[in-house]
Amino acid sequence: MSKIRPGKVAAIDDVKARVDETTTALVTEYRGLTVAEISAVRRQLRTLGADYKVFKNTLVRRAISGTSVEPMGEFLEGPTAIAFVKGDVSAVAKALRDLAKASPKLVVKGGVLDGKSLTPADVAALADLPSRDVLLSMFAGALAAPLRNLAGLMKAVPQNLAYGLSALLEQKGGSPLPASSVEEEASGEVAAPAVTDETDVEAEAPTEATPEASEDVASEPAE
Fold it and tell me: In principle, which of 2, 136, 170, 186 could form an S-S bond with 159, CB 3.0–4.6 Å?
């Protein structure tokens, strides 16, 4: 069995070190791209937390054998450059899709995500996802919405109850609650009952007419 040359050993160790840092990688074919174009792709992906580099397929197969990223071996055909992703994989997939549109010579062949193989269609689906920051913002908004709704509900319940009672009195033939009473009930304050004049109470109290009283009324001149 022939020994592997030191240069190849270093390349294998390089791939293994990258695999130890991340279990997510996207595989591309760069046939026809210039060195300058590959360097431009590398610089852009680096800003998104991905390390993009050209590798020999045979060395990569040796390096990933028995690891969690071994499924990407099916895409190691032709001139291959791999983006090992340590950041937002959807952002990297989106960048590669846009770069491929600008330069059709760059082809996204697939990849691996947490030990699962990704087809080109899977990578395209990842590219359509919102970014990590947007997803976190959406999640935070979803958590905050029920709290806001609960606060609004607690505020609306007393007011709705007061108006409901007023409507019920109207239906039963009673006098509706005055607007001030409805507002007081909505705010949780109950107005004290009004004091009735004693003369009114006496006037409303039923009395039996006596002959003397009748004569007094009859003898008084009409106004």
Answer: 186
Same-domain status, 37 and 98:
yes
Range of the domain at 24: 6-129
Instruction: Residue 158: name the closest of 193, 192, 191, 183 by CA.
Output: 183
User: Over the stretch 101-143, which tens digit does the pLDDT of each residue have?
Assistant: 999 999 999 999 988 999 999 999 999 887 656 555 655 655 5
pLDDT at position 205 is: 45
Residue 196 forms part of a structural domain: no
> Does residue 11 lie in a domain region?
yes
Burial of 53 per CB tally in 10 Å (0-12, 13-18, 19+): middle
The first and second tokens of residue 113, run together, are: 């995500």
24 - beta bridge partners?
A: 113
CA distance 192 to 219: 44
Inter-residue long-range contacts of 128-131, CB under 8 Å, 24+ positions, other chains counted: 128/94, 129/90, 130/90, 131/88, 131/90, 131/91
Distances in Å between the alpha carbon of 147 and those of 109, 144, 174, 191, 220? 45, 5, 39, 32, 74
Query: Which parts of the chain sit beneath pLDDT 50?
Result: 1, 177, 182-183, 185-193, 195-223
Dihedral of CA atoms 74, 76, 77, 78 in degrees, nearest 10, equals 160
Q: Examine the domain organization and report whether 12 and 120 are in the same domain.
A: yes
**Do both 18 and 64 map to the same domain?**
yes
pLDDT at residue 220, rounded to an integer: 46
